[in-house]
Amino acid sequence: MITIQVNGLDELIAKIGSIDMDAITLDVASTLKSEIKHRIHTEGRAADGGLIGTYSAGYMKVRTGNYDETRIKSGKNKGQFREKKTAGQAGVFTRGTRKGQARPVYNRGNDNRVILSLTRTMEKDMDATHPMKIENGFGIGFTNEANYMKALWNDNRYGRTIYSLTENEKQLVEEVVHNYLEKLGLI
Fold this sequence. Notes:
mainly alpha, 6 helices, about 5% strand
């Protein structure tokens, strides 16, 4: 029998055994959370890098509060929307059970890219959650099941995967893991 001794192999095995999967996955999840949130809720981009979608003209009225009642009625700016909305400037409901009540003012811009952020419920839920402990480390998600269901519904509604990693985000995972392994002296 021939035995081969490789110098440093036992040391390398010990270093590999010292990898803390919780620490590395927490680092990855913490890094990705803000990237994913910004991509979806600010840039309006799906996992393939393209736009999630565009809002209809009718929905833009709700999103921006620019109802016909908010148009300037006279003067040099006649027909334009008021720049600054204050309470009551979004007009009132004209039908339904809330008829006569003031419409909510969401104070959103005129960009018609879908950003899944009208009431900010989903993004606030993402903010509120630190990466969550899962079976083999940490992950990113919602603490509220309703927001998770909205995410699935939006994937289906817009016909594309939204809450998944882009190629750039996958590259970021590799960089975080590489840096972690470099600190351990494994690379």
